[in-house]
Amino acid sequence: MLHVAALLVLMIAAVPIAVALLAVSLLEVQFGAGIDPIIAAQQTATGIDSFALMAIPFFLLAAELMNRTGITDRIFHLANCLLGGVPGGLGYVNVGASMMFASMSGSAVADAVGLGRIEIKAMTQAGYDRAFSAAVTAASTTIAPIIPPSISLVIFGVTAGASIGGLFLGGLIPGILMGLAMMVVVYIHSRRHRYGAGARATWGETGHAFVHAFLPLLTPVIVVGGIWGGIFTASEAGAFAVLYALILGVLVYRTIRLREIAEVLFDSAMASANILFIIAVSAAVGWVLTMHQVPMKLAVTILDWSPDPRVFLLLLNVILLVLGCFMAAAPVIIMVTPIILPATTAMGIDPVHLGVMMVLNLMIGLITPPVGLCLFAVAEVAEINAFRLVRALAPFYVVLIVVLLVITLVPEVVLGLPRLFGYVR
Question: Fewer CB within 10 Å of terminal CB in the chain, N or C?
Answer without folding.
Answer: N
